[in-house]
Amino acid sequence: MSIAEQSPGDAPLDAALRDEIAAVARHAEQKRAAGTDALKLVQKRFGYISDRHLAEVAALLEMTPAELDGVATFYNLIFRRPVGRHVILLCDSVACWVMGEAAARAQIRDRLGIKPGETTADGRFTLLPIVCLGHCDHAPAMMVDEDQYGDLDAARLDAILERYR
Amino acid sequence: MMMDKPLTALIQPDGMPLDIAGYERAGGYQALRKALTMTPEAIIAEVKRSRLRGRGGGGFSTGRKWEAVPTGTDAARQHYLVVNADEMEPGSFKDRLLLEQTPHQMIESVIISAFAIQADIAYIFVRAEYVLSLSRLARAVAEAEARGYLGADILGSGFALTIHVHASGGRYICGESSALLTALEGRRPLPRSRPPRSALSGLWGKPSIVNNVETLCNVPHIVERGADWFLGLSRGADGGTKLYGLSGRVKRPGLWELPLGTSLNEILEEHAGGMQDGYECRAVLPGGASTAFVMNADFDIPMDFTSVQKLGSSLGTGNIMALDNQRCPIGMLRNLEHFFAQESCGFCTPCRDGLPWVERILAAIEAGDGEAEDLDTLARHVSFLNSDGTFCDLAPGAMAPLGSGLKHFRAEFEQHIAEKRCPWHETAESWA
Predict the structure, then answer these.
(1) Which ipTM score applies to this complex?
(2) Which chain B residues are Cβ-neighbours of A26 within 8 angstroms?
(3) Chain A contact present for B131, CB below 8 A
(4) All structural domains of chain A with their residue ranges
(5) Which CA distances in Å does A74 have to A4, A142, B302, B339?
(6) Domain range for residue B264?
């Protein structure tokens, strides 16, 4: 079964999540200013922002879906398509390039069979390139979900991937 | 002496931040108490006299920036102070240290600086990936609120301030100060045209000052110790220390607080321990991806604003990246231009279309498919993608390493084109 078929993105946002979004909107100086926070709340629950959810959040913030999509699609870390259970953010900027990002990318390709932008068939990992993570003194660096890792080498990279099921 | 390194003096060996009680015991929030006895004008004058210049890359005088905010009873309200903690300049990792390990120093800096420009509300705009910075700042704000350092009547002074910690969705252009303000307003974060300057019409059209994390963290120390002391910390004309970083094939990559104007050689050899065995440093980007190469013949330069500028580069963030002899300079440029092409906001045509073109040409040259006239095409981009030809500083920044690379690595460009291959190619996918 593909990830898209499993996607809960077609279900309406539940009352609790709508309340959370309303709360961040109240805290903001203008409702629309809560857009990034609101999208992140939805993404935390569903992994990505479906068209349906985008429209619902836009209505809560008194924006048009197009306006909110202009925000959502601008950001590297707001996902408008489904991702795997864990997202690997592999830094491809210059300090990591110097220190062996290509080797890390090749190893992920060999172990998981995915290139940047792809998701494993079992939905376990999505690999995405990310700009400089500000961890350059420990390059090459990456994040998995919200966890940061540096000083990657072949053994360490394998051990990290094992932690995520 | 401890205060030779004011920014990092309170950093603990285990990297854990002091809580508010620990920070107060170490002298924290005393500068705030002093500041509230001064007039805002006196604080601005002292900061101006200290010759504190922006540590985010711009290098503009902080005091002069602050002076532009309208004052007086008929001035527009409210005022905003915005902290640019969107540290996304490739190769830069200095603000992260201050945010993660000295969050109360950041909060105290914000309160004093907000008082100086009479801001009512402050935002700390943090890049999305700095998860630890975000949680520690949120905690520090809550602790400061509970102690009366934030809120309606701060320490009985009548001054009121609210701090919001904002997590970005992640995009390099948000570090551009006007795009950052647009992002905070919840709109697609494109840079704005200037004039008007943000100091007059910024966030929601109100006077707003945007300062870098490291810049602001100097302010409590200037207030407490004075401009003369601050000037004395530096080895040059501009005041203070600098958080210098070095990454690449050095023995000890890292971050050090040193006198502003410390030489590049000293940072590389003494603090970073020199290059790893078997590697030579050919050149560096002195302050991020948007700065021009400094070649190893010039490594005796003091790393201050004026000296680096005289060499045709800029201090930028002061976080240095080493290009070693086992890495292809054309490959490095291709990597840099890929970054800029991807992160272009797409608003103005020269940047949106020019940068991907540059990236494609560099990739072709690296792959052995380059032609002699490609070098002219690249040079033409360098001459057109300047501040007159593009809307903001992104594309001119992208041209800094390219312009200097075309000059200093001419022989390598020509070798790739003549031999139709990259001499460094075989090292690409193997762990060193």
Answers:
(1) 0.95
(2) none
(3) yes
(4) 3-74, 86-163
(5) 22, 21, 39, 15
(6) 246-324
Q: Is residue B180 packed enough to be buried (19+ CB in 10 Å), middle (13-18) or exposed (0-12)?
A: buried
Q: Say what the alpha-carbon torsion angle B298, B303, B305, B308 is, to the nearest 10 degrees.
A: 10
B394-420 average pLDDT score: 98
If asked whether residues B277 and B340 sit together in one domain, one would say no
**Residue that terminates a domain, selected from B203, B232, B261:** B232
Per-residue pLDDT, B429: 72
List A residues 67-126 in contact with B (Cβ-Cβ < 8 A): 67, 70-72, 74-78, 89, 92-95, 97-100, 102-103, 105-106
pLDDT-based confidence at residue A6 (cuts at 50, 70, 90): low
Whole-structure pTM value:
0.97
Buried-state track A93-129, b at ≥16 Cβ within 10 A, e below 16: bbbbbbbbbbbbbebbeeebebeeeebbeebebbbbb
- Beta-bridged to residue B281, according to DSSP, are B324
The amino acid sitting at A54 is: L
Q: Which residue of B has its CA nearest to A132?
A: B90
Arithmetic mean of pLDDT, A133-151: 98
What's the pLDDT tens digit per position in B6-63?
999 999 999 999 999 999 999 999 999 999 999 999 999 999 999 999 999 999 999 9
Contact A148/B at CB under 8 A: yes
Q: Tell me which amino acid residue B382 is.
A: V
In this structure, the answer to whether residues B113 and B216 fall within a common structural domain is yes
The CATH number of whichever domain residue B284 belongs to comes to: 3.10.20.600
Tell me the chain A residues in contact with residue B167 when contact means C-beta distances shorter than 8 Å. Answer: 36-37, 40
Q: Which CATH architecture has domain A3-74?
A: Orthogonal Bundle (1.10)
Sign of torsion over alpha carbons A41, A44, A45, A47: positive
Q: How far apart are CA B185 and CA A70, in angstroms?
A: 13
Inside any domain, residue B393: yes
The residue ranges of DSSP E strands in B34-179, in sequence order, are: 80-85, 121-126, 162-167
Q: What distance in Å separates residue B215's CA from the closest CA in chain A?
A: 18
Are residues B253 and B336 both part of a single domain? Answer: no
Q: For residues B267 and B255, give the distance between their C-alpha atoms in angstroms, rounded to a whole number.
A: 10
Paired tokens of B87 = 């540290």
- Euclidean distance between the first and the last CA atom of chain A, given in angstroms as a whole number: 18
The three-state secondary structure class of A128 is strand
B188 closest CB neighbour out of A74, A92, A99: A74
Confidence check: pLDDT of B150 > 70: yes
The number of beta carbons lying within 10 Å of the beta carbon of residue B20 is 21
